[in-house]
Write a structure and sequence with these properties.
The protein has seven helices and two strands; from the N terminus they run αααββαααα. The protein has helices at about 20-45, 60-85, 90-115, 140-160, 170-185, 190-195, 205-220; strands at about 125, 135. It has a two-stranded antiparallel ribbon with strand order 1-2.
Length: about 230
């Protein structure tokens, strides 16, 4: 009996598929709309006079439920990315695409449903893990656009094993990037929790973190494989 020349890790079976990106984008669109509608209902329930700073924090029980919901959101995005690709970089790329589309559609959905945000400079609570992230709407949207672009290329090249092995400076760069971005988004956490109104977003660490992250991805994509 002649063995098949195609294996689970070689040949056409691991070629990147445009359909995977399309379906991940459709998932992100649908999921972003669902997320937006959940927030519409939460705001009607807890902020009937309108969502604005100073922020009235959710009760402890509801706050924990919201953290759990956000954690479940990440699991869902990871799960669809895992199912859509066969290789690590391909899966990471699909996760980035799904996350970016989800985030952009989330804000688009809020605008369609309730006319918020009135501008990209509106402040928002962005995330609750591991703390209260705040920032103007444009700050997560720019990162979402970068995730979609970088993720698409990472998926396409990652499924073909065309990405260079990760070097130590990539790990350091990614760690620095995440630390700078996390610091920027958590910068106003104490102020918001204590009832203050955030007015200044730390642009320097945000810009530095974004640029370092983009450099890491670009270097990986442009560096030739040596093995």
């Amino acid at each position: 009996m002649k063995a098949s020349s195609a294996t689970p890790l070689t040949g056409a079976k691991t070629a990147p598929r445009a359909s995977a990106l399309v379906w991940l984008a459709l998932f992100g669109i649908a999921f972003g709309w669902v997320e937006a509608m959940v927030v519409v209902y939460l705001r009607q329930l807890y902020y009937p006079d309108g969502f604005s700073f100073p922020l009235e924090m959710l009760p402890a029980r509801e706050g924990l439920l919201e953290v759990a919901r956000e954690a479940a959101t990440l699991v869902m995005l990871l799960a669809v990315a895992r199912l859509g690709a066969r290789r690590g970089w391909g899966r990471f790329g699909l996760f980035a695409v799904a996350f970016g589309v989800w985030d952009l559609v989330y804000y688009a959905g809020l605008y369609v449903a309730i006319g918020w945000p009135a501008s990209l400079c509106e402040w928002d609570v962005l995330f609750l893990i591991p703390g209260v992230w705040t920032g103007p709407v444009w700050s997560p949207c720019l990162i979402a656009v970068a995730l979609i672009g970088a993720g698409s290329v990472l998926y396409w090249r990652g499924e073909r094993s065309l990405i260079s092995p990760v070097r130590w400076f990539h790990v350091v760069g990614a760690t620095v990037s995440l630390a700078l971005l996390l610091g920027a988004f958590l910068n106003n956490q104490r102020l918001v929790i204590s009832g203050g109104v955030p007015t200044r977003f730390p642009l320097a660490p945000y810009a530095a973190g974004t640029l370092v992250g983009l450099w890491c991805v670009t270097d990986l994509l442009l560096r030739r494989r040596t093995c």
